User: What shape does this take?
Amino acid sequence: MKTPSEQEFLETLGLEPVEARPMDGLWAYIIGEEGSLQLRLSFNTHEQSVQTAWTKDGAPLCVVVHEDAVALAFVTTGETVEIHGTFGDHGQHSELRLLARPRLEVRWSTLVE
Assistant: This one.
């Protein structure tokens, strides 16, 4: 599974990981302001999984986990920063589109062939 480095997260979004266990292949980042709507993006390169978890004022709202991750990558256009995730196909096409700037938005989709 290919992912942006810690340095790329810092340079692109100004974020350092809230959790980093390279030996376990795990990284987690929080996007958003404390005390409001936040998104925790975590991924495990060994298990090839990606998770998004929305919280509001610290309370969980929605958690989505997807396995068979192939890659996460930054896509920037002007002031807009997105993280795109692609996943193994096994008869379906799955993707993650996470808009990180200028606002938070997450779109998970799976289309069965």
About this structure: The two ends are 23 Å apart (CA to CA).
